[in-house]
């Protein structure tokens, strides 16, 4: 059996980015053949990726990227299992690479995105290697790409809330301010005209049921409902919201004052809609007692 030197282990580690013990084990299994060891580790990383795939990944990072001319922007969510891995530099670099590929290649699906290459390897292979290295399930969950009417502006708060805005404005800071506002208030659309009719009717039904208990006449109730709906539309639409830096001014008034227009935006929050596994230890103990 060939002697596995520290320098050989170091060389394999630099090639793969994986742990020293994993590198040494692979070299031992391949009798010191560094190429075979690297191939073996890729095979094992794929196997580990399959094994990890069943575990819930509800942490992660939001990544953004913008083309040099700011005419295309992208926002992505890549998930991991723990906040600890979300702070890892290699994971962060992978998220940024994913966002860049969305800008550059306009993939139609996550599968097509995963098949794209950067630095000579597909994103899927890089994902599997990261799973091997970090020991957690990692997944590219979603992405959006905007070909802008104005310019793409992005904002990411603590890696967990990301905003991509298509805005026409002469003052660059305005785009950043609007993106930060969206991250803080989380509107569902740009204007009240974009709120689905179904959502409005649902709100009306709730307000009508609440107002009916007041005993007021029907015509008064209808006026109350109109006022409540207007308030609802202002709360969920970007233009109707009070600007976070100046509550005396709506976002629409801010934009009009600077002759600016927000055409669209995308807002991602890490883990949004993912059901995290909750451990009810008290219930587990009670179940064990019942079985005893």
Order of helices and strands: HHHEEHHHEEHEEEHHHEEHEH
* Strand numbers in spatial order across the main sheet: 1-2-5
- How much strand content do the residues show? 15-25%
What is the tally of beta strands?
A: 10
Number of helices: 12
Major sheet details: 3 strands, antiparallel
Distance between the termini: 53 Å
Tertiary shape? elongated
| Overall helicity | 40-55%
Classify the secondary structure makeup into a structural class.
alpha+beta
Gyration radius, rounded? 26 Å
Spans of at least 5 consecutive residues whose pLDDT stays below 50 are none
Mean pLDDT: 87
Give structural notes.
This protein is α+β, with helices and mostly antiparallel strands and 292 residues long. 50% of the residues lie in helices and 21% in strands. The chain is built from twelve helices and ten strands. The protein has helices at residues 6-16, 20-29, 34-52, 83-86, 89-105, 110-114, 123-134, 172-185, 197-212, 218-236, 251-257, 281-291, and strands at residues 59-66, 72-80, 117-118, 121-122, 139-147, 151-157, 161-168, 242-243, 246-250, 261-269. It has a three-stranded antiparallel beta sheet. A three-stranded antiparallel beta sheet has the order 6-7-10. Strands 3-4 form a two-stranded antiparallel sheet. A hairpin with a 2-residue loop joins β8 (242-243) and β9 (246-250). The longest helix has 19 residues, at 34-52. It starts with 5 loop residues before the first helix and ends with a helix. The relative contact order is 0.12. The model has no long low-confidence stretch (mean pLDDT 87).
